[in-house]
Write a structure and sequence with these properties.
The complex is a heterodimer of chains A (403) and B (372). By secondary structure, chain A is α+β, with helices and mostly antiparallel strands. Chain A has 11 helices and 10 strands. In chain A, helix 8 packs antiparallel against helix 9. Chain A is globular. Chain A starts with 6 loop residues before the first helix and ends in a 14-residue tail after the last helix. Chain B has 372 residues and is of the alpha+beta class. Chain B contains 11 helices and 10 strands. Chain B is globular and about 80 Å long. Classes of the chains: A alpha+beta (403), B alpha+beta (372). The interface between A and B is large, with 50 and 52 residues.
Chain lengths: 403, 372
Amino acid sequence: MDLTYSLEDLAFRERARRWFEANTPRHELTTLEQRRSWHRTLYEAGYVGMGWPREYGGRDATPMQQAIVADEMARVNAPPTINGLGIGIVGPTIIVHGTEAQKQRYLRKILSAEELWCQLYSEPNAGSDLASLRTRAEDRGDHFEVTGQKIWTSGGLIADWGLLLARTDPRVPKHKGISCFLISLRQPGVEVRPLKQITGSAEFAEVFMTQARVEKSDLIGRLGQGWEIAQTTLSYERGGNSLARVTRYAMAFRQLVESTRTLRRSGRPLLDDPVVRGRLGRLYAELEVQRYAALRVLSALEKGESPGPASSITKLSYSEFEKRFYEVALEILGPYGQASSGLPANLTLPVVGSSGHGNTWPYAFLWSRAGTIYSGSSEIQKNVIGERVLGLPKEPRADRVKV
Amino acid sequence: MDFAFNPDQQLLRDSARGFLDAHCPSTVVRALWDDARGESESMWKDMAQLGWLGLTLPEAVGGSALGMVETAILLEEMGRAAYPGPYLSTVLAATALAEAGSPDQQRRWLGAIAAGAARATVAVLDTDWSWEPAAIATRAVRATGGFTLTGTKRFVPWAHVADVVIVPAQAPEGLSLFLVERAAPGLTLGAIQGIDLGTRWATLTLDAVPVAAEAALGPPAQGEALLQRVLQRGAVGAAAEMLGAARRCLDMSVAYAKVREQFGQPIGAFQAIRHKCAEMLMEVENAHAATYYAAWATDTGAEDAALAASVAKAYVGDAARQVCGEAIQVHGGIGFTWEYDLHLYVKRAKALETMYGDADHHRELIVRRLAS
């Protein structure tokens, strides 16, 4: 065991810290053009697509270096890149499964955010049971024709393109009849509607496709290989952001402690109440454990080990922790925790939300409910852990029964 | 950065598991539960042979000069085996002696401890069972040639087999630590039976026990800092042992869920059981990260070492209780029986949860560190 950072990583962190302190925008980015411009600045500095191979414009950076950059961005509360899904998921999928022509056509524009991407996976009736999706892609000779509805599409409102899962063969078992496509959202037959969430804002969208067109050359992998491709795609979602997430929790925790100094109850600061202190101590212990666990995953990735199904443990752990964290924080803050405006400045409690957007406790509290649902709900993660890590017997499932 | 054990550490773990599987199966544990002394002299000698008793001690006294990570590796395996004996209590006392003892004290005790010829313990709690050093009421009063110690120490682990006890007491200079031989006049022992028959406790009554001035451990004014370091290592060590007990409970639960059938299939196929096991694994893996991070931080004197020890003790205590409790639930009725081994680990974890600072105490320490 050796948990010291290497000298290279320390120097790398130092350079990244100086760069972000000097270059992070001090004002909120409100327009698409401002966000695109910040993305280009990051790209030119080498902080976008760091884990991509050099031949496709990446830096071949180690998982630790990627995590360090994400962490430093969190530390200065830097706005995220605008094409997160394109860079984190779509690009890697094209790199692994795409044709040379697809790589030439798409990768560079993903990196530079000239084209923005989203992921068209979930449907209203196919969330956790993703393979039961019903959006159809039919072969029309020279192209595919897509009809169906997608939901929970992050970044859908600004996306130019989507990574699509659609059913191409309804006659075979459901996992085998799905294919993976690249589809332009800037075409007739595609309608994107904002989906207002419990937070009051719309980070998600619904996407309706009616006889939309996909070129034959935009099929990823083989026909019917979509499910397999989606499995590898989902595994890209873990690891790189782990330290940054914990840093955001730690920033929120510091603000929570500050608030318990400011707020008074029964004539004394909340922080002096032993019940409050006990709760704070428990939250911080759990928070630190997320950090140790993140370092453990990173150290395995550094050695080229794939976390595989064990990454389900990480996802389950941090998303359940996050939910508990904001629940307890709002309990501690009482009526002040659920207020988003209307209080004197010294009692308006700011917070850095774990998602990097929203800056009130009510928002962070509500947003924390998403983590245990998206990207494989906690229940799905527990199934994966039970079956693939612990080797428990599979549950008999009607959709897996051989016909 | 490498969170995994290095080859030497891996070897230590494998050999510890092999030794305990062979020499400390549950039949032996159960026999020692019924034994008046509660530990095995031959196992202790074997552990000395393996170098475990001198693990943290200097090479000059026959030790290996290793640290908390290696100690935690052994303790995790001991927790996994529900090993009954004074290993943790002796290591804590011996490490404090190696750190602060005078040359005479070290000559007298360290070689004997490393060789398995002597055992030691630390008597922290008074009748006021706060883990704050300030709550210690035992007094050290100046007398001819040294001090007399008066007070009542409770929940002293393995005092009845210890040859020497480190006793913190309020001296005129402030909190000081004294080496008291168990045979000292005025010192009496009374056994306390706890939930875990593999952990032996005693009440130690000190009635004007005379100790020489040379019996003070370290400079008088630095007793509190030394005690804090003992407690920090104790917290990490107890976390490691609880981790081992929890992992054993998880392993037993998973194995059982694969073979126990109800409603025509193994219960592990039911989500209610599978999800429980998945949550248990998550807690165990988090507990592993917490324990070994804290052990490493302690060894390297990292800035956050004390904080990490408190995080580990608080987190792993809660996690182990949770995992062990759920293991009983997964096993159903059989898990509630004396004959089935599960309760050995459940009880060990519960006893350790209260040692070297319970979760409430460590959560308070965490907040104090963050909010001061």
